[in-house]
């Protein structure tokens, strides 16, 4: 097969995935959209009725909303990891996942960004977070981690969006001729009149490299800043220096799991087995093992430091975490984040798409529980027994949580039909250059 | 008359390009369109290293300066001690400065790219050029003035033997 034919085949495959949606797709979209709409309705209810409809009250003022915020920011991390970090390391399996991971990042940051607004109660005053002077010309407190969050998250959203869009430009230029009508017009507009001259490619490659190099430290900084929301306080269980690397590893762990959750059904439903192979998924499974071990190490360090310091409140906190009211969440977290990923050390298991999908779902549960355990157990038992208390989420909070999953999957499903889910240009580059001995040359390098 | 080749793959494309250069066709007269980046062609066509890096540097430096100036100047405009920390708490301001460094660096790179690559091009949006995955080479006639290699018009005069025949 000539290079040109191979290119044509890649375009046809990716194009087929963007074709008319089937019944399964429509049903999935309808369910997700319904959840999303339900979540919006409950948010409206909370705005009208007041924050009393949520379960958060003294002493646990940060509940499911902040848990979800950290969860979704974490999910957003792997997009840039897979795109930028693996690009800098020249890991070629990235081209099977980078587009959907980047889309996942943008959508997850948007979902995460809603939670501080939901948590505000009076959401319409969200602009108070922005750095501008108030009526008395007093500016925001730049020493507050919550203001850092505003800067870090909005920077992350904008840079991720630029990175996502830049990757799309040559792809849309390749695909525009395959469509007609409104879509052709849209793709023509979005591809900006891309030609593919030598000079354009030279500028483009430089841009992509710089964006990757800028995005990499950004990934690490964003979740570090989120972790400092907790670590700069003096709450036992939060006040620790390990939080930043611990959160970053956890974020990459959960984000990689989400890439698997999305791409395993996607490759089956959209028939992309030829481009997203078992080898590629195995590479992601290895990232899961690696980050799972880092997270596990962080769990051990937290307990070891509490024990070694002999600090009364710190030890009491970790005893409460293990044996207290929320112990089942803690055990779920250990199961999902520490024990189950260890099974991926067996090659046969990490090459089984169904098993990887199941593991990735357990990891989501484990990571969600991790954030819940960190946030809620610490606030439930601070220093003074007089102000101890427990928290359980209300129906409104659970509904809004389900609504955010609905929003994420609705937007992702729309993305799979609107934009190419694989990077056409990078697949062409991969097809055209000499076979990658690490991946393509090995038996089993094709679809399972 | 413009001479035109549509080639199926990278080796054929590079061979044709090398042959043209060996015949003494100046790079200014050659314009190429490729579906994927071909780095070897850049050397053959004497495409200079992209000056995009200066945009990135300028944006990042501006972001860094702004990121420190913003908190420092605002905190000085209404000095209010919070949390017993000094007014100009440099470690706390690093986070804001870092985020703005990345943000302005990335945005300056993106807009610099649009400027350098001459995008968006309204004429091409209305009537895009399609080559259906071919590697295209076009050689314009000697007197046409050349310089049509897209996006990088300001090419220095070069090649002592620049006036060969295709």
TrEMBL record, chain B:
Biased composition annotated in UniProt, kind: Gly residues: 144-153
Stretches for region Disordered: 143-166
Origin: domain of life: Bacteria
Keywords (A to Z) from UniProt: Membrane, Transmembrane, Transmembrane helix
InterPro entries according to UniProt: ActD (IPR021776)
Transmembrane portions of the chain: 54-73, 93-116
A Pfam family it matches: ActD
Protein name, UniProt field: DUF3341 domain-containing protein
